Amino acid sequence: MNSLFKRLPLNRVAATPRSNRRLHTHPPPHPLLAIFSRLCIEGPFTTALALLPDLAAAGLRAGPVSLTHLVKLCVRHGTASDGRLIHRYVETHGSLSHGSGGGLYVANSLVSMYVKFGLLNDALRLFDGMPERNVVSWTTVVAALANADGRKEEALRFLVAMRRDGVPPNAYTFSSVLGACSTPGVLATTHASIFKVGLDSDVFVRSSLIDGYMKLGDLDGGRRVFDEMVTRDLVVWNSIIAGFAQSGDGVGAIELFMRMKDAGFSANQGTLTSVLRACTGMVMLEVGRQVHAHVLKYDKDLILHNALLDMYCKCGSLEDADALFRRMPQRDVISWSTMISGLAQNGRSADALSPNRITMVGVLFACSHAGLVEDGWYYFRSMKKLFGIQPEREHHNCMVDLLGRAGKLDEAVKFIQEMDLDPDCVIWRTLLGGCRIHKNSNIAAYAAREILKLEPEDQGARILLSNTYADLRQWTDAEKSWKAMRDRGIKKEPGRSWIELKKQVHVFIAGDLSHPCSGAIVEELNRLIGRISGLGYAPQTEFVLQDLAVEQKEDLLKYHSEKLAIAFGTMLAMEGKPIRIMKNLRICGDCHAFAKLVSKSEGKTIIIRDPVRFHHFQVGACSCGDYW
DNA sequence: ATAGGGTTAG
Asked: Which of A12, A95, A141, A377 is the least buried, fewest Cβ under 10 Å from its Cβ?
């Protein structure tokens, strides 16, 4: 290293002293390592991961800083198996024994990664095998155990063990372990240790202390810790307010909430949830309503919405509860339980016990998507018998969907013909959906004709009917239908796809190769088709609805607008970013298969929005589950 | 590389 230093021209040494100092202590890194370090910091994560075998093959060892960054990226974007991949690399290439704490640094980040992926046992196994451990290592596992269900005792045992190991706990450790103190005795002992090492003024430790006392029902203990504080933050306020609200002192909680606002803090979701709980306990409907106004800006917070729902139920305003429940963007078990209990508690036990109209739609829908034909029939018939709910249009529609999806198209037709209601367009379109999945053109044509009887101007149905005739090779009928469309002034809209790249929108029209990059796009398209042929792709020419030779059909398919846009996207889209495409028509089956396979072969996410729904293509599958 | 507060029912 010294000789390298000496060989540098003198003037350069003088001109750039800083870079020379670096040169003096570190030789320039191998280019592969340099690329790897950059990828570990800036991503894309998958590329960094893919480089690990190359590093190993070249006999290079990644540094602890890069590896730690990589683990962080893995927690953010990756999966547990990516994490294991990194762990295996690190273990087999000796990176855990980097000098001056480097190995410890990497090992700690791996332990933390396992914890974040919920793999507590893997974390503990790694921890056990570590040659050295510091506060961070110990704290990571203590916190993980304190947060895991039923492992609080172990967390406390680890605290004892770390001290015996000569590692003093710090504020991080104590704030974690306080959640594991489940008896007043243990809490008092822990509090005393905290006091002894002078960590009782730390805000994190304090909020945990307050929470610990309150959860054990010691309101005074919690209050004392709170009162002694000079500087408080929002979480400390939230802890004390939550403690009062949970222990049934709603008035105390609201008083503290007012003081909090006077002290210049503004409520967040946690605060509002506790305040609502206080309102619930005290039956303060009007205060609760005021809080509702502040809840609106957190429309994705399920916990907060559940608390609001419970407030309305327990304050006796079923109208508000009902309206909220219907409008909630998501509902979980707690939302449902809250609503059911609410109905029961307000003397509407009948409503609580019997599924209502909407519940039954959900039940039938679930049967339909799970292919549970028999169950679906059972519930449909039980509705009237057991629950006294008259099946309405929506329930009949669910049954058509259920039968259609299950491929029982004849049964679905029979069902429609025999039901008490007059079929409407919605039901016929549902039937069409089933035909589409199971490629039943005869029934599709029937359904389309029925739709046109009801709505002669339905463009979609007319196009569909023409296409279905083409499908059935009934070219005369197809021609007649096209003519009917032309007479009505409906023109077949050409397929168009839009893709935005680098703030510019590119439009592709089916069969149109006038884009300035068309040459390269076609080349890319051929490359993609070559790659996915290996994965089983074959052009599905049945999606071409004209009477043409196979080769011509293949060409038409190949230049569908979304394929052009996808090829353009795989050429130019940023690494790691999904390809986003918008389409004016619904995607055809061939392009759907194409997109699925490309997402797999290129390792890219493709998102296509058609006029009705989104398709998220990822590693060979689509979010629509092949039904659209 | 490690930390604290919020929802139903029983």
From this structure: A12
